[in-house]
Amino acid sequence: MSAILAKHPVSPGAVSSAGVLSPGFLDALRAGYVMSEADRACHNAVTHNDTNSLALNRAVLRDDDGHFSHRIKSQGITDQKKSGRCWMFAALNVLRPQVMRDHGMADFEFSAAYLQFWDKLEKANLFLEEIIELRDADYLDRDWEKVNKHAMQDGGWWNYVVGLVGKYGVVPASAMPETHASSHTQILNQILGRLLRARAARLLAQYADGARVEDLRTGKIEALSEVYRLLVINLGEPPTAFEWRYRRRKPGDKDAQDSAADMKNVAADDLTPLEHHTPQSFSRKYLGASLADFVCLYNDPHNEMDRHYRFSRQHNIAGNECMHFVNIDTAPLKTIAAAAILANEPVWCAVNMDVDQSEKLGLMEHQLFDYETLFEIDLTLSKADRTRFHAGASNHAMALMGVDLAADGRPRKWLVENSHGDEVGNKGQWTLHDKWFDEHVFTIIVHQRHVPAAILQRFEEEPTELPVWYPGAGGIRFQNR
């Protein structure tokens, strides 16, 4: 019961047995509440100020010293801008430090626009394939709804990146730079969605007239030619071959994030010889290890622990494996994440970014905003119940780049590299406190060498299928301001 009704109880007789808010109940509410001096002070404050500024828990700021017992050196902060590509940027940011370290690079960035191009084309193909698959479905069918609701959206998972890199390779940012459309995707997504739905309607009309599946796929190929043309106009055509060289990191250089230089001013002997690459040869040389060796671990208390699960329809390439994971408690999840960071391996993570985080301060802490004290209300809801009520699921991906361990080895807080530029957070980085990890971190991606054998064995079991409408299954698509 709320604090107001607890102080001023309403007579049970005023409540309608049918659940309708009766006039008598409304009269009782009005008569039963008298604004207290504390409520009046709160009313005056919140009607003239931003609520979060009033509810900000100052104790969190006092306890945040900004120090971490272990940091992974990184090259700076990327910016997805107004696009939902955080899952892609986070994956590339996880891979980047190892590439720079192994090859002695002073600075480096992957092209997100290159993978974005192929992601859009593959998603267009997958959408039309699913329309063909569901050609007899009712338009109110839940699978049909989910397939059509986001006909061309930006969201994705780690396995989307694995599929794209395996099929198309990677290129440096200079080989396919960002465009306005790549970093401001709303209009492009709208146009692509309209195009795909129009072509899907045409395919279903052909099917109603007796066309075979082979005929529908012929129509699909024609539609994909239109999609390709539209993508080239907006994003540029992906390179099949390119030349590349990089600036060597020399002894005495400043930290990588402070050392980015204009290539025009770099001495010739600081540069590597010119290399000729395809996206696949570049990937083989600079990525090396197979991304298939990484595994997805999840924490969803609503489901049974130590079980293998799979989200239905969560892939971006037709024929590829859907997103799947082993569900474990947060304690081993954090132990595994810390082990990877101590080995200088960044960790891809997916979180619920909607709660208790401040872009201005670069902080993530449970009850960072103390609404309960401000309004004298109890907002307690477990992580499992937030899933149950569709009130909390992963919607943003970032890279864990550091950890602060207490004397007993347990993590106190985590350093997060975001992909929203260096003008938000603490120059693009966040401090993620350990209690926030418990409450709002859902997924980590780590190399399997850091995962106990008992957990890895769960991946050998047939996964339990979770439907595409399961909370959080729809992919990571948090967008910048």
CATH class of the largest domain: Alpha Beta
Characterize the biggest β-sheet: 12 strands, mixed
State the CATH superfamily name of the largest domain.
Cysteine proteinases
* Oligomeric assembly: single chain
Query: In CATH terms, what is the architecture of the largest domain?
Result: Alpha-Beta Complex
> What's the tally of helices?
18
Radius of gyration, whole Å: 25 Å
Briefly note the CATH topology name of the largest domain.
Cathepsin B, Chain A
- Terminal-residue CA separation: 36 Å
**Class of secondary structure makeup:** alpha+beta
Average pLDDT, rounded to a whole number, is 91
Low-confidence stretches: 1-6, 256-264
Strand content: 5-15%
SSE topology sketch:
Elements: H1 3-7, H2 23-32, H3 37-46, H4 51-55, H5 58-63, E1 70-71, H6 86-103, H7 112-133, H8 142-149, H9 158-168, H10 180-183, H11 186-208, H12 213-235, E2 242-244, E3 275-277, H13 279-286, E4 294-298, E5 307-311, E6 324-327, H14 330-342, E7 347-351, E8 357-358, E9 363-364, H15 371-375, H16 383-388, E10 396-405, E11 411-417, E12 429-433, H17 434-440, E13 441-447, H18 453-458, E14 464-466
Parallel strand pairs: 4-6, 5-14, 9-12
Antiparallel strand pairs: 1-10, 2-3, 4-13, 5-6, 7-10, 7-13, 8-9, 10-11, 11-12
Verbal overview:
It is a single chain. With 481 residues, the chain is an alpha+beta fold. It has three domains: 33 residues, no CATH class; 192 residues, Cathepsin B, Chain A (Alpha-Beta Complex), CATH 3.90.70.10; 181 residues, Cysteine proteinases (Cathepsin B, Chain A), CATH 3.90.70.10. Helices cover 40% and strands 13% of the residues. It has 18 helices and 14 strands. Strands 1, 4, 5, 6, 7, 8, 9, 10, 11, 12, 13 and 14 form a twelve-stranded mixed sheet that branches. A two-stranded antiparallel ribbon has the order 2-3. Strand 10 and strand 11 form a beta hairpin. Helix 7 runs parallel beside helix 11 and helix 11 runs antiparallel to helix 12. The chain is globular. The two termini are 36 Å apart. The N terminus is likely disordered.
